[in-house]
Each structure stands twice: as structure tokens, then as C-alpha cells.
Amino acid sequence: MMFSRLAVASITKRQFSHTVSNATKIAVLGAAGGIGQPLSLLLKLNPFVSDLALYDIHGAPGVGADLCHIDTKSTVKGYLSEYDGLQKTLDGAEVVVIPAGVPRKPGMTRDDLFKTNASIVRDLAKAAAQHCPTAHILVISNPVNSTVPIVAEVFKKFKVYDPKKLFGVTTLDLVRARRFVSELRESDPASEELIVIGGHSGHNFEGQELDNLCKRVQFGGDEVVRAKGGAGSATLSMAHAAAQMTNSLLEAMSGKSGVVQCSFVQSDLYPECAFFSSQVELGQDGVEKVRDIGKINEYEENMLKVCRAELAKNIEKGKTWIAANWE
């Protein structure tokens, strides 16, 4: 079974803090797209955000004008590529979130998106490396397994790479798992504390029910693409998940201790996988510690073996691509 992403986390629902000790400029690259618009809305509501800068090849000024009417303190402005718009978006940014890229269509895998999205991510990463080299970078653009290594290689080329500040946003896997498990258990999703490794542990699921649950978590994006009749992909749930990840990072940057979130980061957990998604302890400078996945059963171990082999190929694909396509 092929894993497109691996998410490992244990998290409970948290509300935005009402006591904010510092505020942050956030840049959203791809802000007028299906993920970018609802994500920008959620960030406009976040009290940690003081300045929201939105960039896209079209539509970003309109999104910015719409959001700036919302009655929260943060300022919002949208930029296009003309008149140094990307540089203005990135100047002074402490967090850069990248949902830019083409959406999935019926029958497409994340790998099918690679050629187009790789070029987009490469160019945006180059701009970020030049204009906000110390910012935390959160990559949403699919396939994350390959686009995150592309960003890493770009930052290395500019000699500004900090592995603690590069994140692949895999939070949606966990969000889906919590919801799907709660449906089976007839529970509140907020009460479900899960460890998700493409499968499931900690609850009494087995046999076909367990297989179905694992597959639904893995391929939840396909379910949404089919339901939208090819007219869209998982944009709203992805925006919600990305906002959760961003808020966790902002909490940690503000000085809150004990913040743990799932993310695809540089990792030493498995030698064949330079990046891996697992529980990450966050601090003011980004990743403080990558947690081990803990004890897993035989079913999960077998799935993990398949995942690691496929994941290593995905990572290498991104590194090989950027080496051959720097310009």
C-alpha cells in the first residue's frame, strides 16, 4: 500500500489564546486559491497575527480588501507579482505559509501534481530565502513529501537553511483520523487522542473495519475530489488543518511551553528518510525535538515498512528534481 503522507501526532482541540504577548507578520503565498482564501480568513481571526501579507499571481488584492473589513486588529494587504509584490509580501515575514499550486482533479495522485507544483514551490522558496531567510516556512503544496525537500535544497543553496524552521503541513491526516474515528465510536472528535501512522492504534478496531479506516485516512483527499465532481479538492479541511499547525507554531513562538504538533520535518528517526512526519515539540525557534513514534503493533509495523520505502523515493525525487531544475 502506498503512503502519500505519514502523520503521527497526539493532539487535543485548542482555542486561540486571548492573551498575546507578541504579534507576528504572516505571509501566505497562493492566498487567492481554494486553500489560500479560507486559510487567510482563519489567520485574520488569529490574535497572534499582526500583519497578514497575501500573495498570488491574481486575485490577492481583492482577497486582502475583503479580509481587511473583518473586525480584528491585524492589518491585511494583498500583492501581485508586479511592482515587487512578492518581495513586499515576504519582507519582515516571520512565518511563510505556502498553499500555492494546482489543485487535484479526479484520478490524480499527489505525484501527478509534482511537475507543476515543484516549479512553483522552487520559485517561491528562492524568494523567501532572499527576502526572509530566517522565517519559519510551512509547506502545504503537494506532494509534500517532495516539495519540502525542494525547499530545503533551495535554502541550502542560499546558505540560509535551518532545519528547525522548515515544516511540511501534514495536520490534515490527523484531523481526518480524529473525525473518522469519532464517527465509528460516536464520540467527540476533540476527545480522540490518536497516533496515526497511515493506520490506527489505541482503539478496538480490527479486520476489515481497521483496513477501511486506514484507507479512508490515507485517501481522504480522493473522497473529496470525487464528491466535488472534479471541480475542487480538499480545500476547506486543508485550510482548517493548516491554521491549526500555524497557530501551534505561533503559540510556541510566543513563549508557550509544551506545544506539540504533527509535521513533516527533517528527522533522524529512520536513516533512509531524511524527512519524516511525527510528533514535534515546538519552541520559539521552531523544532525543539522530534519525538519517536513509540510502540506500534505488527499491523502498523508492516504498514510503516511500506511507507518508509515509498517515502524515501519521494524525498529523493524532490532532491533530484531541484538539482536538475534550478532555473
TrEMBL record:
It is an enzyme of class 1 (oxidoreductase). Its EC number is 1.1.1.37. The keyword Cell cycle does not apply. Residues 170-319 form the Lactate/malate dehydrogenase C-terminal domain. NAD(+) binds at G30, A31, A32, G33, G34, I35, G36, D56, N117, I140, S141, N142, M238. The active site is at H200. Substrate binds at R104, R110, N142, R176. GO terms for biological process: malate metabolic process; tricarboxylic acid cycle. InterPro entries: L-lactate/malate_DH, Lactate/malate_DH_C, Lactate/malate_DH_N, Lactate_DH/Glyco_Ohase_4_C, Malate_DH_AS, Malate_DH_type1, NAD(P)-bd_dom_sf. It holds the Pfam family Ldh_1_C. GO terms for molecular function: L-malate dehydrogenase (NAD+) activity. Residues 24-168 form the Lactate/malate dehydrogenase N-terminal domain. The keyword Repressor does not apply. It catalyses: (S)-malate + NAD(+) = oxaloacetate + NADH + H(+). Belongs to the LDH/MDH superfamily. MDH type 1 family. Homodimer. This is Malate dehydrogenase.
